[in-house]
Amino acid sequence: MINTSSNIMKLIQCLFFICTMLFAPAVHAETITIAAAADLKFAMNEIVGSFNKSHPGDKVEIVYGSSGKFFAQIQQGAPFDLFFSADIAYPLELAKIGLAASRVEKYAVGRIVIWSNSMDATKMTLTALTDPKITRIAIANPEHAPYGKRAEEALRSAGIWDAVLSRLVYGENIAQTTQFVQTGNAQIGIIALSLALNPELSKSGGYYLISDTLHKPLEQGYVITKRGADKALSKQLAQYIASKEARRIMTRFGFVLP
Description:
Layout: H1 4-27, E1 31-37, H2 41-52, E2 59-65, H3 67-75, E3 82-85, H4 89-96, E4 105-110, E5 112-116, E6 137-140, H5 146-157, H6 161-164, E7 168-171, H7 174-182, E8 188-192, H8 193-196, H9 199-204, E9 206-209, E10 218-224, H10 232-240, H11 244-252
Parallel strand pairs: 1-2, 1-3, 6-7, 6-8
Antiparallel strand pairs: 3-10, 4-10, 5-8, 5-9
């Protein structure tokens, strides 16, 4: 006589084992959120995509924006586990006031360029921006965007700040600044080299590299915040930034590596 109860019990145990094996990775899966400077949009998307290949059960969410605004938000308790800033001064300040859970690391030095999709920017210099035909010049807001601050420094060093001041239009961050030029709300812009090298922009416009002697270095740094202190995924992603693959991606987007 077949022992039906025993067979059913074995079947249940077998199904339980299979479900445990299938869903075990999900139990230990983590989710982290990165606050990243807008100049990192394309490079960071690729880096995280590469990182995810070895972390299929985990989730990395990225929010792009102004470094200065992220700095203020983290001070107010914003739920970011890592902060990649376009100005290393911001994560250093977080560490100083006790809101960092790791050492601040410099991951790159950024560069600024003149970029346009409606004019030939490849042969332009900063003094060319005084041309009366150029009525709208986009830069990121110097008040809270490091790339905007460096654009202002370069314009002042070139001696044309006062001449172009009335023509400036300000983006909230460097990505929005670029968008102003793309959509025709500005004829030309001073943007991040990392954005100008994005295939979408390089197909539609050209750029002129601004000498880095005209502004302070765009030293960029990251830190694990106190919120991300207990998440293994935060530390793993931070370590991955120093990998050969991550550095290769950063170099391809024009960043100077430490």
